[in-house]
Amino acid sequence: MKYTKYCTRNTLRCEENMGSPNYRYSSYGKNSPICCTSHLVKILFFVTSLLEEHNIPYFICWGTHLGAVRHQGLIPWDTDTDIGIFTEDYERVKNLTSTINEKEFCLRYSKSTGCLTAYYSQINELHLDIEIWEKQGDKIVWDNYCIEYNEMFPLKKYKFYDRYLFGPNSLNYLFSYYGADCLESVKKQWMYWDTRLWNPNLTNRETFKLMDNAPAPIDLERNFEEEQQNFSMQDLIYQKIILTINSTKLWKLLIFWVQFKNKLTLRK
Prior knowledge:
Elements: H1 34-53, E1 59-60, H2 62-71, E2 81-86, H3 90-94, H4 97-102, E3 106-110, E4 115-119, E5 127-136, E6 139-142, E7 145-148, H5 149-152, E8 156-160, E9 163-167, H6 172-178, E10 185-189, H7 195-198, E11 205-209, H8 233-247, H9 250-267
Parallel strand pairs: 2-5
Antiparallel strand pairs: 1-2, 3-4, 4-5, 5-6, 6-7, 8-9, 10-11
């Protein structure tokens, strides 16, 4: 398996790719690699441009909305992006599946999350979650979350790198979810239950001033596919095997077994 500095369509995302120097970067509290950031923005910009082209309303939400307000782009360590659409537009968005997939992205529906998800590719699962929100009287509802109608509409444009994306006109739901001080300070949550196994020096949550964190670097012009021009079938099979292991959580079973063996050794 060749060493790959950047993830591409033909590799797993850095977070899952054991052949990457950025493997499990979020578990170590690191910012997202520039390749992952660029791919996430590429999906986000393509889908939102497509929705605007077809006059389908959308809004950035959650961490993507917070990133737009706080960083004018992605939160530096974010690992996915989020937008919302409305139930009446769901079928229209689904009808764009072939257009999205023609660009080598991969649009799927998840029953567990109630979202459409646009993946960077069938192998690289960097993704954009497209949540389906329902208008219920004076509220806009998705799952167990709701935004007041007048805090959603009229939609407002937010600067996101060199573009402007639509989002709710109010930040109140962000303050409720992330905390009233979310624009001034950053609470960085480690993502994996096994963080301490990999790096026991990390605490579960670290709070630090926003000034210590510059916006994520972005270079959308860079062609990260260059390193993969000679990507072999053997490499592709390897990536799919690792993807299968990750998706079936076999790696968690392996970690449990290692921990169990260590405990037995200590008892002896």
